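Thread: quick sanity check before group meeting

JM: Hey all, I'm pulling together slides for Thursday and realized we never actually wrote out the predicted structure for the chain we discussed last week. Dropping the sequence here so it's in one place. If anyone has concerns about the input, flag it before I start.
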Amino acid sequence: MKSSHLPLTGRRYHFSGVGGSGMAPMAQLTALLGARVTGSDRNFDRGLELPVFDGLVRAGVALVPQDGSGVEPGIDALIHSTAVESTNPDFARAEALGIERIRRGSFLSRLAAERRAVAIAGTSGKSTVTAMIAHILVDSGFDPSFLGGGAAAGLDGAFPPGSLRVGGSDWFVVETDESDGSVAEFTPAIATLTNLTRDHKEVDVTTELFARLLEQTRERAVLHVGDPALAAVDRPDHLPIVTVAVEGDPVWMRADLVASSVQLDPGAVRFRIGGADARVPFPGILTVQNAAIAVATAHAAGIPVVRAAGSLATFAGVRRRLERIGSADGIEVFDDFAHNPVKIRMAVEALRPRGTLWIFYQPHGYGPTRFFRDELIETFQEALRPDDQLLLAPIYDAGGTADRTIRSEDIARPLTEANIHAKVVPSRDEATRDIVAGARHGDRVVVMGARDDTLPSFAREILAALLARTGEPAAGRAQR
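JM (edit): ok, ran it. Output follows.
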């Protein structure tokens, strides 16, 4: 992204809650584009030494206490996420100084409005689709900037760990957020809709947000018509739309681009699209869907289908999206961001071709757990087989004033009554002992959950414990 198209030099911003998964890359991008950036986070105040803080410092972000001291006269704006509570001292200080408060998504939409943005929206899979599109555009010489919800592994030119890239062209591939409604504030050149399910908001609310995004899109849109819920999104008459689907999806025969002749291998998928062959080195039908959407979007940006499809052979994935950590004694260990019913079901289906599945699931907050409780129970009942093992951790507590009256036991109890192997494990040590004692050759282990930055390291701890059981060196078969 050329600095002349993003005049942040001389600007000053403070990011409150800077350690969040969406906030950190945004703060890094802002700093790398020349602005003076400070950031505060309650985990920093607690003395937690998290990798995200190291990455922020490397990008030039100055970390300060979350006591209002970072909000100084002359700050252009205070950027925050919806997770930051109104009692935050930074807010009071900004109000006293008359400094504008801007939600992260709104700030991102302002940056995207100044360039040729490709905005990806959806309730599942959008981080992977966003990274795939960025990979294809980089591989095709478009030199785009990129800001995604997950760290794209191996993306050429990306700033570590891979959630952002500063390119030299006007192209900007960006993942939007429907949870705070900011998706409707974008005015992109190209909009891509991946799917629509009940997630942060009810379906009718998200449907309206997506309709507003399409209305404000300048050039063309890509619509995954294999998702029936997207059919209810109003399509503006002025906007050319490329439709895409996977063979066998609803109304797939009417799509402009169809992923057909699908072959699901243990560690990869193959299919044909637009007369071209595609291979993606990741498992599951969801990979096919995501890849088809990415190819269609790249095609909408002017890249031939055969070129876009071929680029996916070197796609290295997204951290915490079915990320294979390694194997021990024929037992594979994965780390995944799945945290709602749809994402959990998709992850289970992708991991299914082998033996027993061991799931360590940490619900990612009291509000989301209460919102999804019944659907989580239904999902695990339908997706798990008799031999599968579900280990439920206590609900992740990010602090604040949340209603803590729901517990993981409220999910486990009805599952055990339905003869599902589900138990609450009060500690990760106990979960590790259960897995080491019970997992056998051919099984798969997956750590699931969001918001908690320590989950990836726990997945590696499980792998190390399994390797120790077999006498293999801890680094012997680990895969980063």
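AS: nice. Confidence is low (pLDDT under 50) at residues 1-6, 476-480. The CA atoms of residues 215 and 237 lie 9 Å apart.
JM: adding both to the slides.
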